[in-house]
Automatic annotation (TrEMBL):
Keywords: DNA-binding. The lineage of its organism: Bacteria, Bacillati, Actinomycetota, Actinomycetes, Pseudonocardiales. Gene3D superfamilies: 1.10.1660.10. Residues 96-109 have a biased composition (Basic and acidic residues). Residues 96-116 are annotated as: Disordered. GO terms for molecular function: DNA binding; DNA-binding transcription factor activity. Residues 13-81 form the HTH merR-type domain. It comes from the Bacteria. InterPro entries: DNA-bd_dom_put_sf, MerR-type_HTH_dom, MerR_fam. This is Transcriptional regulator. The keyword Membrane does not apply.
Amino acid sequence: MNLRKLDDEHYPAFSTGQAAELLGVEQPFLRSLDNAGAVTPERSSGGHRRYSRHQLGRAGRLRELFDEGHTLASAQRILALETELADTRAELDRLRARLGGRERSHPDGPTEDGTG
C-alpha cells in the first residue's frame, strides 16, 4: 500500500462503518447524506461506499448543523458559504504573499494609516 495516499485528504480510505464510528453517527445517517447528494463517497470495486477525510469533515459539519436545528437544504447552503469564505480567504492570503508583504494583514481590518 502506498502510505502517501493516507496523507491525501481526498483519498477514500474509510468504509461506511469506520466513517460512522469516527463521526459518532449511525451508518444510515451517512447513507442518507449520500442519497441526498450532500456527501458523495466513492465506491469500491464491490460497490461499497468509501469516504475520504474531506468527506468525513463535511458529514461532521452537516451533523453539527442538523443538531442546531437546520434543515438539509439550509445546512448545505451554510456549508457551501463556509467553503466559499475559506477559499476566498486563502486566495486573499496568496495575493498578499505575492505582493511581498507590501500590505500588512490585520485581523480587525485596515489599520488607521489605511494599510492592510
